[in-house]
Amino acid sequence: MILGIPETETYYFSRWLFLRFLGVIYLIAFLSLGVQITGLVGQDGILPAKELLGMVQAIAGSSSFWKLPTIFWLNASDFFLQFVCFGGAVVSICLILGFVPALAAFLLWFLYLSLFNVGQEFLSFQWDILLLETGFLAVFFTPLVWKGVDRSSPPSRIVLMLFWWLLFRLMFSSGFVKLASGDETWRFLTALNYHYETQPIPSPISWYAHQIPDVLQSFSVLAMFFIELVTPFFIFASAKCRRACAALLALLQLLIIITGNYGFFNLLAIALCLLILDDASWPAFVRRKIIPDERVVNAPTRRKWARWITIPLAVVILLLSLVQTGGRLTGRRVPASKAVISLRNFLAPFYITGTYGLFAVMTTSRPEIIVEGSNDGENWMEYEFKYKAGAVDRSPPFVAPHMPRLDWQMWFAALSNYQRTPWFGRFLEKLLEGSPQVLGLLSRNPFPGLPPKFVRAVLYDYRFTDFSARKKEGHWWKRKYIRLYYPVVAMRDGS
User: Fold this and answer.
1) Is this structure's pTM higher than 0.70?
2) Do residues 85 and 101 lie in contact, with contact meaning Cβ atoms separated by under 8 Å?
3) E-strand spans in 375-476?
4) Which of 134, 208, 244, 469 counts the most CB atoms within 10 A of its CB?
5) Does residue 312 lie in a domain region?
6) Which of 460, 462, 464 is closest to 475 using CA atoms?
7) Residues 275-301: pLDDT tens digits?
Protein backbone atom coordinates (compact mmCIF):
# COMPACT_ATOMS: atom_id res chain seq x y z
CA MET A 1 0.00 0.00 0.00
CA ILE A 2 1.37 3.40 -1.04
CA LEU A 3 0.12 6.50 0.79
CA GLY A 4 -3.03 4.65 1.83
CA ILE A 5 -3.72 3.56 -1.77
CA PRO A 6 -3.41 -0.20 -2.39
CA GLU A 7 -0.77 -1.04 -4.99
CA THR A 8 -3.36 -3.07 -6.90
CA GLU A 9 -5.44 0.06 -7.55
CA THR A 10 -4.66 1.96 -10.74
CA TYR A 11 -5.86 5.37 -11.87
CA TYR A 12 -4.94 5.58 -15.57
CA PHE A 13 -8.49 5.82 -16.84
CA SER A 14 -9.64 8.02 -13.95
CA ARG A 15 -6.79 10.43 -14.72
CA TRP A 16 -7.62 10.37 -18.43
CA LEU A 17 -11.25 11.20 -17.69
CA PHE A 18 -10.43 13.85 -15.07
CA LEU A 19 -8.00 15.74 -17.30
CA ARG A 20 -10.49 15.88 -20.15
CA PHE A 21 -13.24 16.99 -17.80
CA LEU A 22 -10.89 19.65 -16.43
CA GLY A 23 -10.14 20.75 -19.99
CA VAL A 24 -13.86 21.21 -20.63
CA ILE A 25 -14.21 23.24 -17.43
CA TYR A 26 -11.30 25.47 -18.42
CA LEU A 27 -12.88 25.88 -21.87
CA ILE A 28 -16.15 26.99 -20.26
CA ALA A 29 -14.36 29.35 -17.87
CA PHE A 30 -12.31 31.06 -20.57
CA LEU A 31 -15.18 31.40 -23.04
CA SER A 32 -17.56 32.66 -20.35
CA LEU A 33 -15.05 35.28 -19.27
CA GLY A 34 -14.10 36.18 -22.82
CA VAL A 35 -17.54 37.58 -23.66
CA GLN A 36 -17.53 39.77 -20.51
CA ILE A 37 -13.93 40.75 -19.90
CA THR A 38 -13.83 44.13 -21.66
CA GLY A 39 -16.99 45.33 -19.92
CA LEU A 40 -15.64 44.25 -16.55
CA VAL A 41 -11.96 45.22 -16.61
CA GLY A 42 -11.31 46.54 -20.12
CA GLN A 43 -10.09 50.04 -20.88
CA ASP A 44 -13.68 51.37 -20.88
CA GLY A 45 -14.91 48.78 -18.39
CA ILE A 46 -16.09 49.12 -14.81
CA LEU A 47 -12.73 48.42 -13.13
CA PRO A 48 -10.01 48.81 -15.80
CA ALA A 49 -7.11 46.40 -15.38
CA LYS A 50 -4.68 49.13 -16.49
CA GLU A 51 -5.59 51.22 -13.47
CA LEU A 52 -4.95 48.32 -11.11
CA LEU A 53 -1.60 47.54 -12.71
CA GLY A 54 -0.61 51.20 -12.48
CA MET A 55 -1.38 51.31 -8.75
CA VAL A 56 0.57 48.11 -8.09
CA GLN A 57 3.50 49.41 -10.13
CA ALA A 58 3.54 52.64 -8.14
CA ILE A 59 3.66 50.73 -4.84
CA ALA A 60 5.74 47.63 -5.64
CA GLY A 61 8.06 48.89 -8.35
CA SER A 62 10.40 46.21 -9.68
CA SER A 63 8.73 43.46 -7.63
CA SER A 64 5.32 44.13 -9.19
CA PHE A 65 5.10 40.74 -10.89
CA TRP A 66 5.61 38.86 -7.62
CA LYS A 67 2.96 40.97 -5.92
CA LEU A 68 0.52 40.49 -8.80
CA PRO A 69 1.64 37.66 -11.12
CA THR A 70 -0.09 38.18 -14.45
CA ILE A 71 0.72 38.15 -18.13
CA PHE A 72 -1.00 41.52 -18.45
CA TRP A 73 2.14 43.31 -17.33
CA LEU A 74 3.07 42.87 -20.99
CA ASN A 75 -0.12 44.37 -22.36
CA ALA A 76 -3.49 45.15 -20.76
CA SER A 77 -5.35 46.33 -23.85
CA ASP A 78 -8.87 45.13 -24.62
CA PHE A 79 -7.51 43.08 -27.49
CA PHE A 80 -4.99 41.30 -25.29
CA LEU A 81 -7.55 40.64 -22.54
CA GLN A 82 -9.76 38.89 -25.06
CA PHE A 83 -6.78 37.23 -26.73
CA VAL A 84 -5.82 35.59 -23.43
CA CYS A 85 -9.41 34.43 -22.83
CA PHE A 86 -9.84 32.88 -26.25
CA GLY A 87 -6.24 31.70 -26.32
CA GLY A 88 -6.97 29.89 -23.07
CA ALA A 89 -9.94 28.26 -24.78
CA VAL A 90 -7.64 26.95 -27.52
CA VAL A 91 -5.18 25.55 -24.97
CA SER A 92 -8.14 23.93 -23.18
CA ILE A 93 -8.86 21.99 -26.35
CA CYS A 94 -5.24 20.78 -26.32
CA LEU A 95 -5.78 19.38 -22.84
CA ILE A 96 -9.06 17.76 -23.91
CA LEU A 97 -7.31 16.11 -26.85
CA GLY A 98 -4.34 15.06 -24.71
CA PHE A 99 -1.84 17.12 -26.72
CA VAL A 100 1.24 18.12 -24.66
CA PRO A 101 -0.91 17.79 -21.51
CA ALA A 102 1.69 18.94 -18.96
CA LEU A 103 2.48 22.11 -20.89
CA ALA A 104 -1.20 22.72 -21.61
CA ALA A 105 -2.09 22.32 -17.92
CA PHE A 106 0.61 24.79 -16.88
CA LEU A 107 -0.42 27.37 -19.48
CA LEU A 108 -4.08 27.06 -18.49
CA TRP A 109 -3.24 27.60 -14.83
CA PHE A 110 -1.04 30.62 -15.53
CA LEU A 111 -3.44 32.24 -18.00
CA TYR A 112 -6.35 31.85 -15.59
CA LEU A 113 -4.20 33.17 -12.74
CA SER A 114 -3.38 36.17 -14.93
CA LEU A 115 -7.06 36.89 -15.48
CA PHE A 116 -7.91 36.26 -11.83
CA ASN A 117 -5.31 38.74 -10.61
CA VAL A 118 -6.65 41.60 -12.73
CA GLY A 119 -10.32 40.63 -12.41
CA GLN A 120 -10.65 42.23 -8.96
CA GLU A 121 -14.18 41.86 -7.51
CA PHE A 122 -15.44 40.17 -10.64
CA LEU A 123 -13.15 37.17 -10.20
CA SER A 124 -13.36 36.93 -6.44
CA PHE A 125 -15.42 33.75 -6.18
CA GLN A 126 -14.43 30.55 -4.41
CA TRP A 127 -14.72 28.50 -7.59
CA ASP A 128 -12.14 30.71 -9.30
CA ILE A 129 -9.70 29.86 -6.49
CA LEU A 130 -10.78 26.21 -6.63
CA LEU A 131 -10.02 26.11 -10.35
CA LEU A 132 -6.59 27.60 -9.73
CA GLU A 133 -5.79 25.09 -6.96
CA THR A 134 -7.10 22.18 -9.01
CA GLY A 135 -5.33 23.41 -12.12
CA PHE A 136 -2.03 23.79 -10.30
CA LEU A 137 -2.16 20.23 -8.97
CA ALA A 138 -3.17 18.99 -12.42
CA VAL A 139 0.16 20.19 -13.83
CA PHE A 140 1.91 17.53 -11.72
CA PHE A 141 -0.72 14.89 -12.41
CA THR A 142 -0.50 14.94 -16.18
CA PRO A 143 1.36 12.24 -18.11
CA LEU A 144 4.75 13.43 -19.37
CA VAL A 145 4.02 12.61 -23.00
CA TRP A 146 3.55 14.55 -26.21
CA LYS A 147 0.15 13.14 -27.05
CA GLY A 148 -2.32 10.41 -26.26
CA VAL A 149 -2.22 7.79 -23.51
CA ASP A 150 1.17 6.53 -22.42
CA ARG A 151 0.95 3.94 -19.69
CA SER A 152 4.65 4.30 -18.97
CA SER A 153 3.80 7.61 -17.26
CA PRO A 154 1.74 6.57 -14.22
CA PRO A 155 -0.29 9.02 -12.14
CA SER A 156 1.59 10.34 -9.12
CA ARG A 157 0.15 8.80 -5.96
CA ILE A 158 1.37 11.77 -3.97
CA VAL A 159 -0.51 14.24 -6.15
CA LEU A 160 -3.54 11.95 -6.16
CA MET A 161 -3.63 12.14 -2.38
CA LEU A 162 -3.41 15.94 -2.59
CA PHE A 163 -6.50 15.88 -4.80
CA TRP A 164 -8.28 13.71 -2.23
CA TRP A 165 -7.28 16.18 0.48
CA LEU A 166 -8.60 19.06 -1.64
CA LEU A 167 -11.95 17.34 -2.16
CA PHE A 168 -12.16 16.61 1.57
CA ARG A 169 -11.45 20.24 2.47
CA LEU A 170 -13.95 21.51 -0.08
CA MET A 171 -16.83 19.36 1.10
CA PHE A 172 -16.18 19.15 4.84
CA SER A 173 -15.50 22.88 5.16
CA SER A 174 -18.73 23.63 3.30
CA GLY A 175 -20.70 21.76 5.95
CA PHE A 176 -18.66 22.80 8.96
CA VAL A 177 -18.86 26.57 8.38
CA LYS A 178 -22.66 26.38 8.31
CA LEU A 179 -22.76 24.92 11.82
CA ALA A 180 -19.83 26.95 13.15
CA SER A 181 -21.43 30.25 12.09
CA GLY A 182 -24.20 29.80 14.64
CA ASP A 183 -26.77 30.74 12.03
CA GLU A 184 -30.18 29.68 13.30
CA THR A 185 -31.53 28.68 9.89
CA TRP A 186 -28.89 25.96 9.64
CA ARG A 187 -29.15 25.00 13.28
CA PHE A 188 -32.93 24.60 13.14
CA LEU A 189 -32.90 23.07 9.63
CA THR A 190 -34.89 25.89 8.01
CA ALA A 191 -32.20 27.23 5.65
CA LEU A 192 -33.71 25.70 2.51
CA ASN A 193 -36.99 27.47 3.27
CA TYR A 194 -35.10 30.59 2.11
CA HIS A 195 -32.22 29.39 -0.05
CA TYR A 196 -33.97 28.71 -3.35
CA GLU A 197 -35.57 32.17 -3.26
CA THR A 198 -32.63 34.22 -1.98
CA GLN A 199 -29.65 32.67 -3.79
CA PRO A 200 -27.83 34.91 -6.29
CA ILE A 201 -29.35 33.61 -9.54
CA PRO A 202 -32.14 31.05 -9.10
CA SER A 203 -33.10 28.64 -11.87
CA PRO A 204 -36.69 27.87 -12.94
CA ILE A 205 -36.51 24.73 -10.78
CA SER A 206 -35.71 26.95 -7.79
CA TRP A 207 -39.24 28.36 -7.92
CA TYR A 208 -40.73 24.87 -7.68
CA ALA A 209 -38.24 23.76 -5.01
CA HIS A 210 -39.28 26.75 -2.91
CA GLN A 211 -42.84 25.42 -2.83
CA ILE A 212 -41.79 22.11 -1.21
CA PRO A 213 -43.36 21.57 2.27
CA ASP A 214 -41.23 22.65 5.22
CA VAL A 215 -40.79 19.13 6.59
CA LEU A 216 -39.17 17.99 3.34
CA GLN A 217 -36.98 21.11 3.31
CA SER A 218 -35.73 20.21 6.79
CA PHE A 219 -35.07 16.61 5.72
CA SER A 220 -33.08 17.95 2.75
CA VAL A 221 -30.92 20.04 5.09
CA LEU A 222 -30.20 16.94 7.19
CA ALA A 223 -29.26 14.98 4.09
CA MET A 224 -26.98 17.79 2.96
CA PHE A 225 -25.21 17.87 6.34
CA PHE A 226 -24.68 14.11 6.16
CA ILE A 227 -23.17 14.39 2.68
CA GLU A 228 -20.95 17.37 3.52
CA LEU A 229 -19.85 16.40 7.05
CA VAL A 230 -19.81 12.59 7.15
CA THR A 231 -19.33 11.40 3.58
CA PRO A 232 -15.96 13.18 3.01
CA PHE A 233 -14.27 10.87 5.52
CA PHE A 234 -14.99 7.96 3.17
CA ILE A 235 -12.62 9.55 0.65
CA PHE A 236 -9.78 7.91 2.58
CA ALA A 237 -11.53 4.55 3.07
CA SER A 238 -11.76 1.44 0.90
CA ALA A 239 -12.51 1.53 -2.82
CA LYS A 240 -16.10 0.43 -2.20
CA CYS A 241 -16.64 3.26 0.32
CA ARG A 242 -15.08 5.74 -2.08
CA ARG A 243 -17.51 4.73 -4.81
CA ALA A 244 -20.46 5.39 -2.52
CA CYS A 245 -18.84 8.64 -1.44
CA ALA A 246 -18.34 9.81 -5.03
CA ALA A 247 -21.95 8.96 -5.89
CA LEU A 248 -23.36 10.95 -2.95
CA LEU A 249 -21.09 13.95 -3.51
CA ALA A 250 -21.88 14.01 -7.22
CA LEU A 251 -25.60 13.67 -6.52
CA LEU A 252 -25.48 16.73 -4.27
CA GLN A 253 -23.69 18.71 -6.97
CA LEU A 254 -26.25 17.67 -9.60
CA LEU A 255 -29.10 18.81 -7.36
CA ILE A 256 -27.38 22.15 -6.89
CA ILE A 257 -26.89 22.47 -10.66
CA ILE A 258 -30.59 22.14 -11.41
CA THR A 259 -31.73 24.42 -8.57
CA GLY A 260 -29.17 27.21 -8.95
CA ASN A 261 -26.58 28.84 -11.20
CA TYR A 262 -23.07 28.59 -9.80
CA GLY A 263 -21.00 28.76 -12.94
CA PHE A 264 -18.60 25.85 -13.34
CA PHE A 265 -18.26 25.29 -9.58
CA ASN A 266 -20.37 22.14 -9.34
CA LEU A 267 -18.79 20.62 -12.45
CA LEU A 268 -15.38 21.15 -10.89
CA ALA A 269 -16.50 19.44 -7.68
CA ILE A 270 -17.76 16.49 -9.75
CA ALA A 271 -14.43 16.37 -11.60
CA LEU A 272 -12.62 15.99 -8.27
CA CYS A 273 -14.97 13.13 -7.38
CA LEU A 274 -13.69 11.22 -10.42
CA LEU A 275 -10.27 10.96 -8.83
CA ILE A 276 -11.43 8.97 -5.81
CA LEU A 277 -12.57 6.22 -8.19
CA ASP A 278 -9.95 3.70 -9.26
CA ASP A 279 -9.95 2.18 -12.72
CA ALA A 280 -11.87 -0.89 -11.53
CA SER A 281 -14.83 1.40 -10.76
CA TRP A 282 -15.44 1.93 -14.46
CA PRO A 283 -16.95 -0.60 -16.90
CA ALA A 284 -14.17 -2.70 -18.40
CA PHE A 285 -15.38 -2.24 -21.99
CA VAL A 286 -15.15 1.55 -21.55
CA ARG A 287 -11.72 1.80 -19.97
CA ARG A 288 -10.19 -0.77 -22.35
CA LYS A 289 -10.93 1.51 -25.25
CA ILE A 290 -8.56 3.99 -23.62
CA ILE A 291 -6.18 1.49 -21.98
CA PRO A 292 -6.40 -1.62 -24.18
CA ASP A 293 -3.65 -3.58 -22.42
CA GLU A 294 -4.06 -3.20 -18.67
CA ARG A 295 -1.18 -5.60 -17.99
CA VAL A 296 1.22 -2.81 -18.90
CA VAL A 297 0.61 -1.14 -15.53
CA ASN A 298 3.15 -3.55 -14.09
CA ALA A 299 5.71 -2.68 -16.72
CA PRO A 300 8.77 -0.50 -15.97
CA THR A 301 7.98 3.20 -15.98
CA ARG A 302 9.98 5.80 -17.87
CA ARG A 303 8.35 9.22 -17.86
CA LYS A 304 6.88 10.37 -14.56
CA TRP A 305 7.10 13.28 -12.18
CA ALA A 306 10.11 12.79 -9.89
CA ARG A 307 9.53 12.50 -6.18
CA TRP A 308 12.02 15.28 -5.50
CA ILE A 309 9.35 17.50 -7.09
CA THR A 310 6.12 15.96 -5.79
CA ILE A 311 7.21 15.44 -2.16
CA PRO A 312 8.20 19.09 -1.54
CA LEU A 313 5.03 20.10 -3.39
CA ALA A 314 2.97 17.98 -1.00
CA VAL A 315 4.74 19.37 2.07
CA VAL A 316 4.12 22.98 0.99
CA ILE A 317 0.46 22.43 0.09
CA LEU A 318 -0.28 20.49 3.27
CA LEU A 319 1.37 23.14 5.45
CA LEU A 320 -0.44 26.05 3.79
CA SER A 321 -3.80 24.33 3.54
CA LEU A 322 -3.71 23.21 7.19
CA VAL A 323 -3.03 26.77 8.31
CA GLN A 324 -5.73 28.20 6.03
CA THR A 325 -8.34 25.55 6.72
CA GLY A 326 -7.67 25.59 10.44
CA GLY A 327 -8.24 29.34 10.48
CA ARG A 328 -11.41 28.99 8.44
CA LEU A 329 -12.87 26.30 10.68
CA THR A 330 -11.90 27.81 14.03
CA GLY A 331 -12.42 31.45 13.15
CA ARG A 332 -9.02 32.38 14.53
CA ARG A 333 -5.46 32.51 13.30
CA VAL A 334 -3.66 29.17 13.50
CA PRO A 335 -0.20 29.43 15.13
CA ALA A 336 2.54 29.01 12.56
CA SER A 337 6.29 29.52 12.41
CA LYS A 338 7.79 32.59 10.78
CA ALA A 339 9.03 30.38 7.94
CA VAL A 340 5.52 29.10 7.21
CA ILE A 341 4.08 32.63 7.38
CA SER A 342 6.76 33.92 5.01
CA LEU A 343 6.10 31.04 2.62
CA ARG A 344 2.36 31.68 2.78
CA ASN A 345 2.81 35.38 2.08
CA PHE A 346 5.14 34.73 -0.85
CA LEU A 347 2.87 32.14 -2.47
CA ALA A 348 -0.44 33.88 -1.70
CA PRO A 349 -0.63 35.71 -5.07
CA PHE A 350 -0.35 32.35 -6.88
CA TYR A 351 -3.41 30.81 -5.17
CA ILE A 352 -2.08 27.26 -5.02
CA THR A 353 -4.28 26.64 -1.96
CA GLY A 354 -7.60 28.12 -0.87
CA THR A 355 -10.33 28.04 1.75
CA TYR A 356 -13.89 27.05 0.97
CA GLY A 357 -17.38 27.07 2.38
CA LEU A 358 -20.41 28.74 0.82
CA PHE A 359 -23.49 30.15 2.60
CA ALA A 360 -22.11 29.98 6.14
CA VAL A 361 -24.93 32.38 6.99
CA MET A 362 -28.15 31.95 5.01
CA THR A 363 -29.72 35.07 3.56
CA THR A 364 -33.39 35.15 4.54
CA SER A 365 -34.51 38.04 2.34
CA ARG A 366 -33.80 39.11 -1.20
CA PRO A 367 -33.03 42.80 -1.63
CA GLU A 368 -32.64 43.49 -5.35
CA ILE A 369 -31.10 46.55 -6.98
CA ILE A 370 -32.97 48.03 -9.93
CA VAL A 371 -30.97 50.56 -11.95
CA GLU A 372 -32.95 53.32 -13.63
CA GLY A 373 -32.21 56.16 -16.03
CA SER A 374 -34.02 59.38 -16.86
CA ASN A 375 -33.68 62.47 -19.04
CA ASP A 376 -35.88 64.75 -16.94
CA GLY A 377 -35.43 63.45 -13.40
CA GLU A 378 -39.12 62.52 -13.17
CA ASN A 379 -39.78 59.70 -15.64
CA TRP A 380 -37.53 56.73 -14.97
CA MET A 381 -36.91 53.66 -17.10
CA GLU A 382 -35.30 50.43 -15.89
CA TYR A 383 -32.16 48.83 -17.25
CA GLU A 384 -32.67 45.08 -17.58
CA PHE A 385 -29.88 42.69 -16.66
CA LYS A 386 -29.42 39.44 -18.53
CA TYR A 387 -29.85 37.00 -15.67
CA LYS A 388 -30.51 38.52 -12.25
CA ALA A 389 -34.06 39.09 -11.01
CA GLY A 390 -35.73 42.09 -12.61
CA ALA A 391 -39.06 42.00 -14.44
CA VAL A 392 -41.48 40.08 -12.22
CA ASP A 393 -42.96 38.16 -15.14
CA ARG A 394 -39.60 36.89 -16.40
CA SER A 395 -38.68 33.33 -15.53
CA PRO A 396 -35.48 32.71 -13.56
CA PRO A 397 -32.92 31.45 -16.09
CA PHE A 398 -30.76 28.40 -16.62
CA VAL A 399 -27.38 30.04 -17.18
CA ALA A 400 -24.74 27.73 -15.64
CA PRO A 401 -22.04 26.81 -16.48
CA HIS A 402 -21.74 30.36 -17.86
CA MET A 403 -20.82 32.74 -15.03
CA PRO A 404 -22.44 36.22 -15.41
CA ARG A 405 -20.12 38.09 -13.09
CA LEU A 406 -21.79 41.50 -13.04
CA ASP A 407 -25.16 39.91 -12.22
CA TRP A 408 -23.55 37.99 -9.37
CA GLN A 409 -21.87 41.07 -7.93
CA MET A 410 -25.20 42.91 -8.04
CA TRP A 411 -26.50 40.33 -5.56
CA PHE A 412 -23.63 41.03 -3.16
CA ALA A 413 -24.05 44.79 -3.62
CA ALA A 414 -27.72 44.58 -2.64
CA LEU A 415 -26.77 42.88 0.65
CA SER A 416 -24.47 45.78 1.51
CA ASN A 417 -24.53 49.50 0.61
CA TYR A 418 -22.91 51.50 -2.12
CA GLN A 419 -20.35 53.02 0.28
CA ARG A 420 -18.92 49.53 0.77
CA THR A 421 -19.27 48.68 -2.91
CA PRO A 422 -16.95 51.15 -4.67
CA TRP A 423 -17.28 49.51 -8.08
CA PHE A 424 -21.01 50.29 -8.19
CA GLY A 425 -20.51 54.02 -8.61
CA ARG A 426 -18.11 53.30 -11.47
CA PHE A 427 -20.76 51.13 -13.07
CA LEU A 428 -23.29 53.98 -12.98
CA GLU A 429 -20.71 56.36 -14.46
CA LYS A 430 -20.26 54.01 -17.40
CA LEU A 431 -24.02 53.99 -17.98
CA LEU A 432 -24.00 57.79 -18.06
CA GLU A 433 -21.12 57.67 -20.54
CA GLY A 434 -22.93 55.06 -22.65
CA SER A 435 -19.97 52.65 -22.60
CA PRO A 436 -20.71 50.00 -25.26
CA GLN A 437 -18.63 47.42 -23.38
CA VAL A 438 -20.55 47.87 -20.13
CA LEU A 439 -23.92 48.11 -21.86
CA GLY A 440 -23.05 44.81 -23.54
CA LEU A 441 -23.26 43.18 -20.10
CA LEU A 442 -26.96 44.09 -19.90
CA SER A 443 -30.01 42.64 -21.59
CA ARG A 444 -31.87 45.86 -22.38
CA ASN A 445 -30.72 49.45 -22.61
CA PRO A 446 -33.77 51.75 -22.40
CA PHE A 447 -31.71 54.57 -23.97
CA PRO A 448 -30.45 53.08 -27.25
CA GLY A 449 -29.68 56.46 -28.80
CA LEU A 450 -27.97 58.74 -26.32
CA PRO A 451 -27.25 57.83 -22.69
CA PRO A 452 -29.58 59.33 -20.07
CA LYS A 453 -28.86 62.54 -18.21
CA PHE A 454 -29.50 60.93 -14.83
CA VAL A 455 -29.19 57.46 -13.29
CA ARG A 456 -30.10 56.07 -9.90
CA ALA A 457 -30.50 52.73 -8.15
CA VAL A 458 -33.59 51.63 -6.24
CA LEU A 459 -33.81 48.75 -3.76
CA TYR A 460 -36.75 46.34 -3.83
CA ASP A 461 -37.62 43.29 -1.77
CA TYR A 462 -38.22 40.31 -4.09
CA ARG A 463 -40.14 37.18 -3.20
CA PHE A 464 -41.24 34.17 -5.19
CA THR A 465 -44.94 33.98 -5.94
CA ASP A 466 -46.92 30.84 -5.09
CA PHE A 467 -48.89 28.51 -7.37
CA SER A 468 -52.14 30.47 -7.18
CA ALA A 469 -50.56 33.86 -7.87
CA ARG A 470 -48.48 32.41 -10.67
CA LYS A 471 -51.54 30.87 -12.30
CA LYS A 472 -53.56 34.07 -11.95
CA GLU A 473 -50.96 36.69 -12.95
CA GLY A 474 -48.21 34.71 -14.67
CA HIS A 475 -45.60 36.28 -12.39
CA TRP A 476 -42.61 34.44 -10.98
CA TRP A 477 -41.76 37.25 -8.56
CA LYS A 478 -43.52 39.85 -6.44
CA ARG A 479 -41.63 42.90 -5.32
CA LYS A 480 -41.98 45.72 -2.83
CA TYR A 481 -40.17 49.07 -2.79
CA ILE A 482 -37.69 49.45 0.10
CA ARG A 483 -35.69 52.64 -0.47
CA LEU A 484 -33.31 54.47 -2.74
CA TYR A 485 -30.05 52.52 -2.92
CA TYR A 486 -27.88 55.03 -4.78
CA PRO A 487 -28.82 58.71 -5.08
CA VAL A 488 -29.48 60.36 -8.43
CA VAL A 489 -26.26 61.11 -10.29
CA ALA A 490 -25.70 63.09 -13.47
CA MET A 491 -22.81 63.40 -15.89
CA ARG A 492 -20.42 66.12 -14.79
CA ASP A 493 -20.25 69.20 -17.01
CA GLY A 494 -17.51 68.91 -19.54
CA SER A 495 -17.39 65.12 -19.29
Assistant:
1) yes
2) no
3) 381-382, 384-385, 442-444, 454-464
4) 134
5) yes
6) 464
7) 999 999 998 888 787 776 554 444 445
